[in-house]
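Q: Hi! First time doing this. I have a protein sequence and I read that you can turn it into a structure. Is that right? Here it is:
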Amino acid sequence: MKSDAWKMAGSASTSGRACLGRCRPAIYLRSKSSALLISAILLGISGISLPQALYKYRGPDGEWVFTDRAPETEALAEVRDLPSGLKKPEVSLAYRLVGRKIQFHATNDFHAPVELVLVLDVLENVERPPPDQSMDWLLPPRSQTELLQLDAVGDVGVPDISYRFLYLLGDPNAEHRPHRPYRAPFSIANKFMVSQAFPIQVTHNTADSYYAVDFAMPVGTDVYAARGGTVIEVASTNFRAGSDPAEQGTSANLVRILHDDGTIGVYAHLNWNTIRVRPGDEVKRGEYIADSGNTGFSSGPHLHFVVLRNGGGHLESLPIVFEGPNETEVTPDLGQQLAAY
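A: Yes, that's right. Below is the predicted 3D structure, encoded as structure tokens:
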């Protein structure tokens, strides 16, 4: 499972528009003295996929076939558009001209803090920020924040501004301090094999996955919260799986839960349309949240569990231990049959 790091999430210019990856329609903001163009760019965001269609048709032996691929033959197929699911939380940035001042405002829809970095590429007829002005902000959960104000220069012309901004979930000052070992994320007294864990790094070869743990388990296995917290992101309508990280790397169904120490638990490759929590929900340790599945960058049914923190410009995974018998600590190891207590 590929987690997202920095999200390049916007650019604006009065002189042109760039669009990479998924790009939304431009929004024009007009005032008496300027016309400001804002465009949004979203790159590499986990859990978001292109619109999906489901094909239903009879196979060569008369059996019903359900797939995301159109039939290769001339078989009559019923095509269904799949639901897009919950609206994904976003971070947006806009500026406006108030008198002769340019005000930058950021909106954070996530139920989690977000680190934002603003890059000013072009400033014409606008004063530059002071040299000691930090261009890095921590946006509180569900907030609107004024970032900075810049003065327009005299009356020489319309301000021309081109900028980019990037954001990353989490507080870079968060420290991993669980109150007790993590609960294995499945039913009490059940056992499942650890199919990948540190230091074995077959696919867990980036900072955000080094300490991730994969459990081999059948599709439809109940998944429970390993630790309590606030649900901050859900993706539930993907049904594809494959071994190409470029194609399936960001299309796993998942749940992200913010813990009280600022770290984030991620449960990935969940089954299509089984997630039972929504952003903003408070979940308790051991609460049922979804079914396991086989979606996204996955070679077979399994659950991918990882605890992340904002490492200051990048997401990094954290070592974890699970609770064993009599509240002992169990370090996950490849091939181990791990039981839930």
